[in-house]
Amino acid sequence: QVQLVESGGGLVQAGGSLTLSCAASGRTFSRYAMGWFRQAPGKEREFVAAISRSGGSTYGTDSVRGRFTISRDNAKNTVYLQMNSLKPEDTAVYYCAARDATRSSRAYDYDDWGQGTQVTVSS
Fold it and tell me: Are 24 and 31 in contact (CB under 8 A)?
């Protein structure tokens, strides 16, 4: 099991940027693929982006491709989500998740979750 703590959320105007961080502790971070998911009020949790154990492979959902970048620093046990050109529809609670296997876009594939960080984008 790995413990995850997200940070970096906040209120930003449309077109602005935020960088989310997710600090991991408990087990060897580099054995975990990592994902970012988000959940808006009244909606289901949705996949945002995922990164492989080494960081060499990443992918994101269509709605964020070209705007969001996922990265990781295994020496710092941290995964990041750089979010640019933010839109009001990006408003949600953002969660990071860990999976002791290859990366996945499916929430049920992930074993450990953080508590979430709120991102609010005003128009």
Answer: no
| DSSP tag of 100 | S
Instruction: Calculate ∠ Cα 49-45-69, nearest 5°.
Output: 15
Helix (H) and strand (E) counts for the chain? 0, 11
Residue entry with tokens 């933010």: 86
* pLDDT tens string 43-79: 999 999 999 999 999 999 999 999 999 999 999 999 9
Sheet holding 3-7, edge to edge: 3-7, 18-25, 78-83, 68-73
Residue type at 40?
Answer: A
Angle at 81 between CA 80 and CA 85, to 5 degrees: 150
CB 112 within 8 A of CB 98: yes
CA dist 8 and 74 (Å) reads: 19
Contact 12, 83 (CB under 8 A): no
The three-point CA angle 66-71-73 to 5° equals 165
